[in-house]
């Protein structure tokens, strides 16, 4: 499954939509100077620029106290030119990540990590959901992979990927199993999967003998190794799987396209074109 090509098409479609909507502002907050986070932020900005979304780059030093990070989020909440807010994780230890996520106005929460949006997803009333799981679902949709009644196994239970993706798959009528680092006999679960998603950051974890012939395998993992970028899925899985996403060029570009989609969705909520649920 070609993520780069599909993401390019989605960005093209968004471009037309954005032109009709007027100004859209996407603010990113980076605390500290983690090089990987810096690369991710740059990619997101470049993609935003290309489709006509104004990317607003907010950076704070690594030693920023909790309260100052919260103040910046409040400022962005108040700023009418900002439609979406993304706080890049991980945050430095002195900052309470959960508190920062709670502070983001849910209507601008393009990463879907505010408990309101996470709760909406849990309740099956999706509003803004995290971009990586949305990108994975777009892959399945594009390649016409049936989800209703399918057995889906998600390896990884993070708040950003594994858990929200499991909820989206459930909403799409799959029978979902969530595995993690304490799961015993991982292969016993993965071998039953029609759709297998690996989101662990453990390079090569999923080997060909763990995959059912004809399964769809989505590799979310990206790990920098001395041999280059590696996914969670061993390349030999291609001989067993019917569909497999490459690393790089798979879920990565789809995540960015889905983030831009979320920024557009947030702008629609803010302008009243879409109704955002409020108490
Ligand atoms: P995370 O917060 O570190 O979570 C990793 C999850 O994998 C945890 O639930 C962990 O289990 C589980 N896990 C780790 N090793 C395992 C093993 N050997 N067997 C079974 N489960 C295992 O990471 P994340 O944010 O979800 O990201 C996961 C991977 O996806 C990373 O490589 C990340 O770089 C990549 N990623 C890619 C994109 C993209 O755009 N392509 C976006 C986000 C993330 P426990 O809960 O028990 O610890």
What portion of residues belong to β-strands? 15-25%
Order of helices and strands: HEHEHEHHHEHEHEEEEEH
Which small molecules are bound? NADP nicotinamide-adenine-dinucleotide phosphate
Radius of gyration: 19 Å
List the helices and strands and how they pair.
Blueprint: H1 3-21, E1 25-31, H2 35-51, E2 54-60, H3 66-78, E3 84-87, H4 97-103, H5 115-122, H6 131-142, E4 151-155, H7 162-171, E5 175-179, H8 186-190, E6 195-198, E7 216-219, E8 223-225, E9 228-230, E10 243-244, H9 251-271
Parallel strand pairs: 1-2, 1-3, 4-5, 4-6, 6-7, 7-10
Antiparallel strand pairs: 8-9
Helix pairs in contact: 1-9, 2-9, 6-7, 6-9
Bound molecules: NADP nicotinamide-adenine-dinucleotide phosphate.
Quick summary:
40% of the residues lie in helices and 16% in strands. It is α/β, with parallel strands linked by helices and 279 residues long.
What does this structure look like?
- The protein has 279 residues and is of the alpha/beta class.
- The chain contains nine helices and ten strands.
- It has a five-stranded parallel beta sheet with strand order 5-4-6-7-10.
- Helix 1 (3-21) packs parallel to helix 9, helix 6 crosses helix 7 and helix 6 (131-142) packs across helix 9.
- Bound molecules: NADP nicotinamide-adenine-dinucleotide phosphate.
- Residues 132, 155-158, 160-162, 179-183, 186, 199-202, 205, 220-223, 251-252, 255 line the site of NADP nicotinamide-adenine-dinucleotide phosphate.
- NADP nicotinamide-adenine-dinucleotide phosphate binds next to helix 9.
């Amino acid at each position: 499954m070609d993520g780069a090509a599909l993401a390019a098409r989605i960005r093209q479609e968004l471009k037309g939509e954005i032109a009709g909507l007027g100004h859209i502002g996407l603010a990113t907050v980076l605390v500290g100077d983690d090089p990987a986070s810096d690369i991710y932020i740059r990619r997101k900005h470049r993609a935003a620029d290309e489709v006509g979304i104004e990317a607003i780059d907010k950076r704070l030093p690594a030693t920023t106290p909790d309260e100052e990070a919260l103040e910046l989020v409040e400022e962005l909440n108040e700023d009418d030119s900002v439609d979406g807010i993304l706080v890049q994780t991980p945050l430095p230890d002195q900052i309470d990540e959960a508190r920062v996520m709670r502070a983001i106005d849910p209507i601008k929460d393009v990463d879907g990590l505010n408990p309101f949006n996470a709760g909406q997803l849990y309740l099956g009333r999706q509003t803004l959901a995290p971009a990586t799981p949305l990108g994975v679902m777009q892959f399945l949709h594009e390649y016409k992979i049936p989800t209703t009644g399918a057995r889906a196994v998600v390896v990884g239970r993070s708040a950003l990927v594994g858990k929200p993706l499991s909820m989206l798959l459930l909403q799409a009528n799959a029978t979902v199993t969530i595995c993690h680092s304490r799961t015993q006999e991982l292969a016993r679960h993965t071998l039953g999967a029609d759709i297998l998603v690996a989101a662990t950051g453990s390079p090569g974890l999923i080997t060909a003998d763990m995959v059912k012939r004809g399964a769809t395998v989505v590799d979310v993992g990206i790990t920098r190794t001395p041999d280059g970028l590696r996914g969670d899925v061993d390349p030999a899985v291609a001989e067993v799987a019917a569909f497999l996403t490459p690393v790089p060029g798979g879920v990565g570009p789809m995540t960015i396209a889905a983030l831009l989609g979320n920024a557009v969705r947030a702008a629609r909520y803010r302008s009243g074109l879409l109704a955002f649920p409020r108490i």
